[in-house]
Amino acid sequence: MPQSERRLAPIVSLDVVGYSRLVRHDERQTLRLVQRVYDRLILRTIGDRGGRVFKTMGDGLLAEFSSVVDAVEWTADLQRQLHERKLSTPGGEIFQIRAGIVLADVLVAGEDLYGAGVNLAVRVQNHSPPGGMCITKWMFQYLDGTTDLKFIDLGPTELKNISRTVRLFAWHPDEQLPLRPPPVALPSERPSVVVLPFDNLSGEPEQGYFADAVVEEITATLSRIRDFFVIARNSAFAYKGRAIDVRQVGRELGVRYVVEGSVRRVGERVRITAQLVETDTGNHIWSNKIDGAVSDLFDLQDRMAAEVASALHPSIRWAEVERARSKRPEVLAAYDLVMRALPHLWAHRAADNARAIDYLGQALALEPGYGLAAALSAWAHGQQVAYNWSPDIARDRSAGERMIEQAAMMVTDQPTGLTALASAMMQLGGDVAQAAAFADKALEIDPNHAWAWMRRGFGRVYLGDPEAGLAAFETAKRHSPLDPFAFNCHLGMGLAHFSAGRHQQAITLARGALAERPGLTWPYRDLATYYAHHGDLAAARHALDKFLTLRPSVTIVSLGDTLRFMEPALLSKYLRGLKLAGLA
User: Fold this and answer.
1) What positions does the domain Guanylate cyclase occupy (predicted)?
2) Which residue, among 78, 43, 62, 53, has the nearest Cα to 118 in the 3D structure?
C-alpha cells in the first residue's frame, strides 16, 4: 500500500438527484446525460479552481480542493449553470445535483482519500436541496466575508451514522426558494407504522409494479384500522431504491414501526415475505412469509396485513381486517392494469396522464363494473381539464362525467375511489359541495388517507373557507411528510393564502412547489395571478409566458370555464390577476 499521510482539505460530494429512478426509466440515456455533465461541466472546470476528482460512482463523485473558497465558488458555479440550462432527463424531469462540502482531516493513500471526513461530506450532501449545496458550520464561519453567497441556517441536524448533530447551512441558485429543513415528525399516540417499498425478487425489473401493488394493498388495509396511525404510501415510496436505516425512517416520519419485505413472482406462483421492525432500537419484532397462487393474491395480501396488525396490536382480530377490506375486482388482469396506471397518474405530467387513461380504459373493458378503475379514470380526465392539458375540454369533461356516474354507486366504501371521485368532480367543475362530501366520507372510513385530507383542503378553499383548507393541508402533510405529490399540497396552501389576501405567502409556496417538481408548467398560472395582485407585473408576465408556452390558445374565457369549481369571488379575483398579467 502507498505511503499514507494526513492533511486538512475541503471535500466536495456530488450526487445526482433521483438517479435510481432515472436509470429505471432509461438507463442508457441517463448514463449518457450524466457522462456529458461530468465531461463538459465538471472535468473541464474543476482544475481551474484547484480541485481534482478522487472518486467517482455511478450517481456521484468526491473531489478535493486546495481552498475552501474555491470549493464553494466552483460548486456554486456548477449549480448555476445547471439551473440556467435546465437539462431534461429521459423522464422529462430537470437534471439536478445535490452537493455537500466539508473541511475534513483526511487520510491520503496514493490518489485516494479516506477517513470520517469523507463520509461526513456524503452525509451533508444528503441534506442539500436539489440543485443547491449544504455546508457545515465550520465552513460557514470560514467563509465569513469571502463570498456573496447567501446561506440559510438549517440548524443542528442529525446525520446518518454520525453520533453528534451537525449544524448545516444551505444555498440554492434561486435565492427566493425557501430552504427550510424537513420538519421532524412527532410520533402518534396510536401504534404508528409505515410499510416501506418491498423488494422485487422476481428477476424481472418490469415486475416492480407488482411488488408496489402488494405494498399498496397492505398499506390500505392497515390504514382503515382506526387503532393505527399509518403513513401514506406516497411518502413510503420516497425510500424506494435507497439503502435506509430504520432509525432514520422513524425520525423522519414519526413512526414507531416499519414493515419491510419482498415479493417474488415466478409464473403463477407468488411469495410475500415481511418483517416488522421497531424504529427506536432496530429490533425485529416479527417476520413471516406467505406462498400461494397469483389468482389468490388478494387473500394473500389480506393474510399478511392481518398478521402485521396482530403483531402491532394483539387485540386486533381478523374480523377487523376483514371489515377494512375494499371490494375486490373479479378479474385479476383488470387489477393489474390499474396498478400499472397508478404511477402514471401520480407523475402529474400530460403524457403520463394520457397513458394512465389508456390503462384504465383497458381495465374497464375487462371488467366494466370495476368502480376504482372508473373513479381513477374520472380523475385522470379531470386533470386533463383542470391543468389545461386537453386539446378538447368538452370531450374530456364529458368522458369524466360518464366515469363519475359509473363509479359513484360502486365505491361507496373505498376511500381511494371516493377521493378520486372528489378530485374528478372538483376538477371537472361539478358540484363542489358534493365532491367535498365524498372526501369527508373517505376520511370517515380511513382517517389516515393523506390524499383525502388534501382533497378536503382544496374543497374548503374552493367553497370559500381558506383557513379550514390550510388546516386540512397541514394534516395531509403529517400523514405523508415525504410525499412526492406534496407540491400539489403546497399549491393548495398557496391558493388558500391567496384567497385570504396573503399574496407573498402564496408566491413563496407556488415557487417552492415549482422547485419541488421542475418541468411542470401549469402552476405558473397560479404564480402569474399571485404576482399580479402583489404588484409585480413584470414577474407576473414572465410567469404567464411560461404557462402559455405549451398552451398558446388559452384565453380568459376558456380559463374561466376550466376553473369554474372556484367560488365566484375567488374565481373573479384569480382571473383579474391573469388579466393584469396580460392574458386576453
Assistant:
1) 10-125
2) 62
